[in-house]
Amino acid sequence: DADVTQTPRNRITKTGKRIMLECSQTKGHDRMYWYRQDPGLGLRLIYYSFDVKDINKGEISDGYSVSRQAQAKFSLSLESAIPNQTALYFCATSDPGNYGYTFGSGTRLTVV
Amino acid sequence: AQKITQTQPGMFVQEKEAVTLDCTYDTSDPSYGLFWYKQPSSGEMIFLIYQGSYDQQNATEGRYSLNFQKARKSANLVISASQLGDSAMYFCAMRDGPHNAGNMLTFGGGTRLMVKP
To answer: CA A77, A97, A32: angle at the middle one, nearest 5?
Structure first.
């Protein structure tokens, strides 16, 4: 099993629908992140969480919300999806004890 | 102000030749880390190499090396002996602060490398 698992891998949804992207990890890391990647561009930070009680907005949090259900689970929600939220979404974890960041395989979301 | 700048949107390199992908960064924190990731067409993010701001030597990992010029705030990736499988997007990223702060990564816009046979 992957260290960081994202579900679903691909999703097509309609404008206005609520959708949740899920991320779970087996690394035991406290710190988790959601990034968005638009075609041909770098990753931008949406939200991050340094522990289950600590959630922070990133660079582009408008239109998104998150939930840290447990140390291992960090979900990203689009309350009312819009087409410009079509992107590749990555979940990542990090361990302050070393420099490593672990990325999930990504969720490719299309809003039509 | 952009923290990470990759000025080469796309590059070609002949198979078996070396190629340098440019990255400049901006931070006022004396402690930081620089990363390079590879993203093949399948989409996953593959960690390649890391350089800490206090590291005395340039990082190397197999065919990858990082040309770290601290005064110029540049952290260029050098790929030696390019292979067809090196064709991908390459991202430079920076973590502000020491590694035990576990801060988030900031990414550059990426460089698409295409290796010609």
So the answer is: 0
